[in-house]
Design goal:
The complex is a heterodimer of chains A (287) and B (277). Helices cover 74% and strands 1% of the residues of chain A. By secondary structure, chain A is mainly α. Chain A has one domain: MetI-like fold (Orthogonal Bundle). In chain A, helix 2 crosses helix 14 and helix 13 runs antiparallel to helix 14. Chain A is globular, with a radius of gyration of 24 Å. Chain A starts with a helix and ends with a helix. Chain B is mostly helical. Chain B has 2 domains: 58 residues; 211 residues, MetI-like (MetI-like fold, Orthogonal Bundle). Helix content of chain B is 77%, strand content 0%.
């Protein structure tokens, strides 16, 4: 049996080395970059500058702007997706004719290539020919510049996220609700509980872990958002939709300021690692 | 009394269908509207009042296929996503089996691998861009396959581990007693039993590689450009070519939507990393 334990370890080692090499090596390289001045648009020379990039980042107003935008984006998108998704899940977990078809159709946005989802909505938001403004004109409301208005752009971008990811919450919560036992509900009904009480004191507590995992997964994924915003606004107007991913892209791959981008990436990575540790604790508790 | 009750019941079910209808309209209409746009002529596309009834034309698709190299981008996507799937799923099935059965590294290794799933792509793209630049791997299939195989590995392995969990240990232990090696037992006894898992892991990996944009836009130029990047080329400085854009967009999402319908049953399992079945 001892032999059986050592051989599997040796067998799995190549795969682990492959993963390790392809993730840790670039991260270490990035860590080195974060202490360097390395601007590809100026020269190929890399020079050591100590902690300067870190100090710069903490004084960078664009960084704080991006952080704020990201937080607003994540909070608004995930918050609304959760409430809306829960409501729809309660509706679609009922048993009525055609419900299976509805449950299948609703997953379509989620499977859309994110870039295509962004472009479809850019078409709808188009100022002259877009459906959104046409609907407003029917209601006799003046046209809006959905993606060009500095205050409205965030709302539009969040709306696209809601459109694409609410189905995920719906899908997961339907499965959760359908897997709940019947007995607590029957007992509560005998005691004369209202449907709100059933929801508040039975459904939510029983689904607590599923809800937490779903919300955290959504938070982590919304935090990484890039594709949709890239095709909708590229972070504009006036940096009002510039989430962290877009910001890092601009610094590193537009301005080629690699040291600065590395510092920002490291900070973003730490946030995500923190969030995913919570998620892992939740998943382990379930298993 | 009974009649009153049934009227109320009817009103309630009508209300239910109306609510569901409105919800579905919001989630499905944009895709439907994009599909229509793909078949519209320039004139219909740019009319002030959106046209629902129009003479459909295939000119956008013709343009996408013959004027632009979009077919090449689709082919690139297919090759890259296909290779990624083959590499990722074979590695993850193999490693998932060993880690699951022999508890290698306790829970630490499998959860370390899970953390990789959370990593924002933009965080790792900067060092990779520099590394691939020096290695002259920019704009190659290999660069993208390498990246995608790492990014998709965690999900595929966790999916596979869930499926291995359901195979009773006694089966392979019996095969060892019969003189099978560990490797032979894995290939001929365990793998056939987790075939559904392999299919699901493959389709998930394929979808995510097919849809990926950030790595593709940074690491590819003309040679290895994938479909999602190709689509964005219709956003031009002077105008946006909506017709071609929507036609190519539809071509890009069609395979994914079809695949998704096949694995609907397993979607949750994959998206929730096996935390919910």
């Amino acid at each position: 049996m001892v032999k059986r334990k050592r051989i599997p370890l040796l067998m799995v080692l190549p795969v682990l080395i492959y993963l390790f090499a392809l993730t840790i090596v670039p991260l270490v390289y990035m860590w080195v970059l974060s202490f360097s001045e390395y601007n590809l648009s100026r020269s190929e020379q890399m020079s050591f500058v100590g902690l300067r990039n870190y100090f710069d980042a903490f004084q960078d107003t664009e960084f704080y702007n991006s952080l704020t935008v990201t937080l607003i984006y994540v909070a608004a998108a995930v918050g609304i997706e959760f409430v809306l998704g829960f409501a729809i899940a309660l509706l679609l977990s009922k048993d009525f004719r055609g419900v299976g078809v509805f449950r299948t159709i609703i997953i379509m946005p989620m499977m859309c290539t994110p870039v295509v989802a962004g472009l479809v909505w850019r078409y709808i938001f188009s100022p002259e020919i877009g459906m959104a403004n046409y609907l407003l004109s029917i209601l006799k409301i003046p046209k809006l510049v959905w993606l060009g208005d500095p205050n409205l752009a965030v709302v539009s971008v969040v709306l696209v996220d809601i459109w694409q990811w609410t189905p995920f919450v719906v899908l997961v919560l339907i499965a959760g609700i359908l897997s709940l036992p019947n007995e607590p509900y029957e007992a509560a009904l005998i005691d004369g509980a209202s449907s709100w009480q059933l929801f508040r004191y039975i459904t939510v507590p029983l689904l607590r872990n599923v809800i937490l995992i779903t919300v955290l997964l959504r938070v982590i994924d919304a935090f990484k958002i890039f594709d949709q915003i890239w095709v909708l606004t590229r972070g504009g107007p006036a940096l009002r939709t510039e989430v962290l991913s877009i910001f890092i892209y601009r610094i590193g791959l537009r301005f080629f300021s690699m040291g600065r981008a590395a510092v920002l990436s490291i900070m973003m990575l730490f946030v995500v690692i923190g969030l995913s540790q919570i998620l892992i604790i939740l998943i382990r508790r379930r298993a | 009394m009974k009649q009153y009750y049934s009227i109320r019941q009817n009103a309630k079910s009508v209300l239910l269908y109306v609510a569901v209808g409105v919800i579905l309209l919001f989630f499905v209409f944009p895709i439907f509207w994009a599909c229509l746009a793909a078949f519209k002529s320039r004139l219909d596309l740019f009319s002030q009042i959106p046209t629902l009834i129009f003479k459909p034309t295939l000119s956008n698709f013709r343009d996408v296929f013959y004027q632009q190299p979009f077919l090449k981008y689709l082919k690139n996507s297919l090759i890259i996503a296909g290779c990624t799937t083959a590499v990722t799923v074979s590695m993850s099935a193999y490693a998932g089996y060993l880690i699951n059965r022999f508890r290698i590294g306790g829970p630490h290794i499998s959860f370390w691998i899970l953390t990789l799933r959370m990593m924002p792509p933009v965080v790792i793209i900067i060092p990779y861009f520099l590394i691939f630049r020096v290695m002259r791997l920019l704009d190659t299939y290999l660069a993208l396959v390498l990246m995608y195989s790492v990014m998709n590995f965690p999900l595929a392995m966790w999916l596979m581990m869930g499926f291995f969990q359901e195979v009773p240990r006694e089966l392979e232990e019996a095969s060892w007693i019969d003189g099978c090696s560990l490797w032979k037992g894995f290939i001929s006894v365990v793998l056939p039993l987790v075939l559904p898992g392999i299919v699901v892991a493959s389709l998930f990996t394929f979808i995510f590689s097919w849809n990926e944009f950030l790595f593709a836009v940074v690491l590819s130029r003309d040679h290895a450009r994938t479909a999602p990047v190709g689509i964005t080329l219709y956003i031009q400085i002077r105008e946006i070519l909506w017709g071609q854009l929507m036609a190519s967009g539809i071509l890009a999402i069609a395979p994914v939507v079809v695949i998704a319908m096949f694995i609907r049953k397993y979607l949750i399992r994959g998206l929730m990393l096996g935390a919910l079945k």
